[in-house]
Amino acid sequence: MVIWSKDHPLFNSFEGLHNVYVNDVGLTSLQQGRVYPDGTVFVFDLLGVRTARGAMETRQRKFTGVMKKNSKLYADTGGWGWEVFTGDEQKGSLADMKPCFSCHTSQKRADYVYSTYSP
Fold first, then answer.
1. I want to staple 40 with a disulfide (CB 3.0 to 4.6 A). Which of 19, 26, 54, 97 is the partner?
2. Domain spans of the chain?
3. What's the mean pLDDT when you consider all of the chain?
4. Top-level CATH class of 2-110?
5. Residue 32 has pLDDT above 90, yes or no
6. What own/partner pairs with CB < 8 Å and gap ≥ 24 does 68-71 have?
């Protein structure tokens, strides 16, 4: 997905090209719309974009978000833990997972995951 316009409600936070990946543990659940097993990992890579001469080009990496399922460790956040790596940082910088969880609660019916499978 690409968010490029201020018309989108998440423009200020998530403007850019969204690449989302899931590991093998969670792939079948993503494909079949089931609850994700512990060990599932999603990676959300957000790249800046610009338009030039009729083309959309990627720019710098804004951040990489990681979402990992561990029902015991993250019981207070729906079984999911989050981390954010700004730019190309090697060390995470997320101080509090509660804002991530707060946003993802709207997707409780989908086990707190926004992504859907696209073959």
1. 26
2. 2-110
3. 94
4. alpha beta
5. yes
6. 68/39, 68/40, 68/41, 68/42, 69/26, 69/36, 69/37, 69/38, 69/39, 69/40, 69/41, 70/38, 70/39, 71/38
pLDDT the model gives residue 115: 93
**22 CB-near residues (< 8 Å, 6+ apart):** 30, 40, 41, 42, 43, 115
What six digits make up the tokens of 111?
């086990």
Q: What's the one-letter identity of residue 92?
A: G
CA dist 101 to 75, 79, 81, 107, Å? 11, 10, 8, 10
> Is residue 118 over pLDDT 90?
no
For 30, phi and psi rounded to 5 degrees?
A: -65, -45
For position 51, what pLDDT does the model report? 86
Q: Nearest CA to 62 among 89, 87, 43?
A: 87
Q: What gap in Å lies between CA 40 and CA 29, rounded to an integer?
A: 9
- The burial class, CB within 10 Å (0-12 / 13-18 / 19+), for 28 is middle
